[in-house]
Amino acid sequence: MENITKPKLxxxxxxxxxxxxxxxxxxxxxxxxxxxxxxxxxINQDCDFQQICDEYQPDLTLFESGYRSTKVQKIxxxxxxxxxxxxxxGFHNADSWCDCRAGFLSDMEHxxxxxFFSISTTTVEHTPEISENLFVWPNFVDPDVYHDYGESKxxxxxxxxxxxxxxxxxxxxxxxxxxxxxxxxCPHLGYEGRFASRMIYGEKYARMINASFFVPSCGTVAKEVxxxxxxxxxxxxxxxxxKTASIEAAGFVDMQNCIFADDNNILDKLxxxxxxxxxxxxxxxxxxxxxxSRHTLKQRDQIFQWFNLYRTLKPNQRIIQTNPFEPLTIIxxxxxxxxxxxxxxxxxxxxxxxxDEKLWAGKYEDAEALYLRCLYYISWMPEPKxxxxxxxxxxxxxxxxxxxxxxxxxFTLEVYKALDPDPVEWAYFIISLLCQGKVxxxxxxxxxxxxxxxxELERTRWVINVLENEEFQExxxxxxxxxxxxxxxxxxxxxxxxxxxxxCLMLQACKQNSLAEYLQNIILSKSKLVSKPNxxxxxxxxxxxxxxxxxxxxxxxxxxxxxxFIQGLSVELRSILKTNVLKPLNRLETKYGYFLPYSFSGMxxxxxxxxxxxxxxxEEIKTAxxxxxxxxxxxxxxxxxxxxxNWNKPTVFCINTTNTHFKKLQNRYTNVSIVRCYExxxxxxxxxxxxxxxxxxxxxxxxxxxxxxxxxxxxxxxSGISEVHEIDEARFIILDELNTxxxxxxxxxxxxxxxxxxxxxxxxxxxxYAIFQRLININ
Length: 779
Hints:
Radius of gyration: 29 Å
Distance between the termini: 59 Å
Structural class: alpha/beta
Low-confidence stretches: 528-549, 555-570
Strand content: 5-15%
Mean pLDDT: 86
Number of strands: 24
């Protein structure tokens, strides 16, 4: 047989500084896959590109970047401008939402690389500016590891991998299935750290899958295609997964080669297939065939395809990819055909989009809640942090804006060690300084990173030049796309006129009126480009909403008046009443919040209510503290209900400002010894730190309490709660109204504590909730 010489590829891979064997295996599989098509030379030390090319004479070079781990180190590569005739490709080896993207884009520009491959099918959704230069090299499996070992099927349902807020589908499915089917749950102990060595991987992991009937997995909040989507059917187990555009693009079809399921049908589908094992075997075998024919390293030749097409490319042609799992092709540039990427609309992207809609409508509080929800799913994602900075600039909180925008910049420069930051983030960091009145600092920052360019940054520099020099006459011309740095942020396309209007709005909101006026006058007199800002105003509530609210209040009063009458009705009449009256009202509760009396309200089926009631009923607790307690408030009612059912009869201490709902709670429990109410300042806008902490200290002193068993923060919107440290030693911390800035600060404090575990969380239920438990022994 004639030997075919493979083209030579030099792969610049980051330096391994102690990665776990599991992650090292993933990195090795990339090399193994490339070796199917190329003669691969791996370089993982600092080097000189020209010298490497002189020594190895490659046909193609591939530069890994954007890796998120403390156990690898980016290598330094000099002279990358040498040998321009040798094609250079960037390899984005990271999640599509990763905070290393700004560093990746910085690396690509400084290395002179314009074409990128990513392992993530959703990268273009998160970084749309690179859509025309991006190709997908999707995840795959090694058939030498993932195949049918002939193991006996002894595990009904296997759950393996992370079950965290990043995987909401997986969280919900595990809760449901594990209650009704025998399930093997393998905890994910992390890719790094002291417990990573306990992880099962390789052949042992594949055999465990092979011994299971079903293995559920999902593609995170982003609805990505992850390795598990191929590892499970590739090891001949039946994949249960969420139906997404990326999964369908990979060839998966419900009830043919996998199972698409959600909260409502997962148990029905399991019941059916366990009762029809022949059909289950057909589905499992079809999934196995799909993976081994389309999704192993032997079929992942996208980089090889690109190389072969590039060698035949004519000046008027370009390479495109119409589907991550279909062949690349050449088209004429005049055809107007573009890269076609799978759009999955993951939860994080939906939340950002909804937040943007509120932000640009001037509804800053609503926008902040949506961006915070996004951060609860992916706390390191830079897009919501930039937008939270913008919200605070429009609200006049320049200092808070600086704290948000500084986070991704510091990570990019200090942790990732990129040569420069994301240009849009840097632009709004400078604007935030202006909004603090720190003109000199803004000028200094503008002079940093002179090679960094982007339309948002060029406009910011123009403003600084105008403020710095009244005689500045240069008219700003929009940058050509080919000349500016790609950003991870996509903001609305605005005329320079509108953009200046919004900067002036921010300056005025932050009490920099003279600066805004000076800027307006200078621009009006010098460039004639800008008229007086047309400031955005929050829309007033509509008449129909007001009427609806009045109707809900009226309905509640009527139901309260008829309460005793309803209890005396026959079962049949009560059923009719619930169907015709209560069900429509319960649907309204779902949309507008709980307003019915407890016995009729949908509150009793609320996710947080159920969890908290069970916790306070079954745990051996003696004390509970409710901050922001109110009658009708979900968390408050759940704690009180659970404590009342607890055999230990714990004491509940309720704190709130003077208000109608708290008064109602006080009146209800006037003669109940286990419920004690404490009023603090009735001024709702005051920072309560000065009153709340002494109140808690007094409760502990009077009742000889060292720490509370349960603390519910039912109203985290109280200013100053995040500064109260009397809550730090509770056994359970429950945060209701999670999507507020105060809650976010408390959440970050406890998520960073090694002796606290996040046991449950859902940012999407009403205004979100999270529950932490203190660990007795963390060793």
